[in-house]
Amino acid sequence: MRSALHRAGMRFRKHYVPLAGSRTRVDVAFPRWHVAVQIDGCFWHACPEHGTRPSSHADYWTEKLRRNVERDRRSDEVLAEAGWTVLRFWEHEDPESVAVVVHHALSKRRDSSSEHSAR
């Protein structure tokens, strides 16, 4: 997905920590526009379409994956409260389609930013 974003002319930071003192880390960040892109792996983030649950230690894995999803939601909330737009995608999604959505979000943030600076 990063390659698709780069081919589309978007420049970004990888594994970015947007908030000082926070453990929240963003997979792909556009700090100037406060846009965070998270790419969720199907296993680790419990994809409803492709996620699997190991049969060994099933209780452990069910709880672990639930905590991962819960942590994702908390991170989204923290970033949104700080003024960030958070976009989440599954690893199986088409990279070119993701790039279009990200480009649209960046355009909206840029337009919003230029409206505020024109006042």
Plain-language structure description:
- With 119 residues, the chain is an alpha+beta fold.
- The protein has one domain (2-95): 3-Layer(aba) Sandwich (Endonuclease, Chain A).
- Helix content is 45%, strand content 18%.
- The protein is built from 3 helices and 4 strands.
- It has helices spanning 2-7, 58-81, 95-118; strands spanning 13-16, 26-30, 35-40, 85-90.
- A 4-stranded mixed sheet has the order 1-2-3-4, sandwiched between helices.
- The longest helix has 24 residues, at 58-81.
- The mean pLDDT is 92.
Brief description of this entry?
The protein is an alpha+beta fold and 119 residues long.
Give the distance, in angstroms, between the N- and C-terminal Cα atoms.
Answer: 36 Å
CATH topology title:
Endonuclease, Chain A
How large is the count of helical segments?
Answer: 3
Strand order of the largest sheet: 1-2-3-4
Shape: globular
Instruction: Report helical residue fraction.
Output: 40-55%
CATH uppermost class: Alpha Beta
